[in-house]
Predict the structure.
Amino acid sequence: MSYSQFKVRTEQPTQFVNITASCRECVAKSGVLEGVCVVYIPHTTAGVTVNEAADPAVVRDIKMMLNKLVPARGDYTHMEGNSDAHIKASLMGSSVHVPVNSGKLALGTWQGIFFCEFDGPRTRSVSVQVIGK
Amino acid sequence: MSYSQFKVRTEQPTQFVNITASCRECVAKSGVLEGVCVVYIPHTTAGVTVNEAADPAVVRDIKMMLNKLVPARGDYTHMEGNSDAHIKASLMGSSVHVPVNSGKLALGTWQGIFFCEFDGPRTRSVSVQVIGK
Amino acid sequence: MSYSQFKVRTEQPTQFVNITASCRECVAKSGVLEGVCVVYIPHTTAGVTVNEAADPAVVRDIKMMLNKLVPARGDYTHMEGNSDAHIKASLMGSSVHVPVNSGKLALGTWQGIFFCEFDGPRTRSVSVQVIGK
């Protein structure tokens, strides 16, 4: 069991940041050989997802479609003007969980872990709890 | 490791109920100091999400957008007439997972855990498994 | 703690495969009595969800709505032509987590675990990590 946090600095309103290397470091530091790596986002206008890390066009297309499905302006009642960011955060989710096998993140060949900024630019935190032994 | 369940009574067809206090109680009862709190919904027309608990307009806007994206009436084949509720349940997800740090739920400043009713009113169950030690 | 993998063979472009029985087997083999079963998909054009397993019309309606929200053709930039599959994978998510109680998956009465193929037909892998003791 090992809890850690790291920072992510975003530069755009909507931005997917590949945080796989930082998550791998948390797993290495934890010393856990078998278990699960829980990546948790303690924010309400950002989320996290696992998807393709090879071609940057993939996350560009995910962002484009989320902006199309949930437009920035609409019949929103939340006065801060970032309701779309809250909704996208819930659609992506607040955590992802990758198995740890033989001390390594058991990601698929093309997979990476992406911090999903929906109301940037901001300095954000990511919490990582590695469960196992 | 500690498994518990509690009930949620909903009063509306679509309703987000803040269950953070009940989840905190499950963590306190478990005695777990370091780990993860898994909140699981054993229903197929309800989900769970983490989002802003400060301004109720945020969850109102999430509900509004989900109802817009997935209308109650459409080309559905499921005869019970609640296909939209099943779809929204899968979009929000059946579980959320919040790190437990120093015996406390490590939620972000503005975060709360919301039971998402999509086919109410009903009496629902929420399962909580606190993992760790 | 017990890590295993099994294969799923899909036959259609979009197909939800009920993998509950295979997940139950992983839990039985693990010997874990209290914990959580983590079902993880190591692919970027497939996901996993928990929803109704009784009436097949439910997953048919979920597939139909996902195809409507995220059409196969659109303003996508990813050259492989399967951006919609990547987006649907992130909307459903890469993992589900079901509590294990008294050595059994604590699914609700109507719930099943579905592998969500969005770019089939293919032979796919599912990873299962059972956490607990």
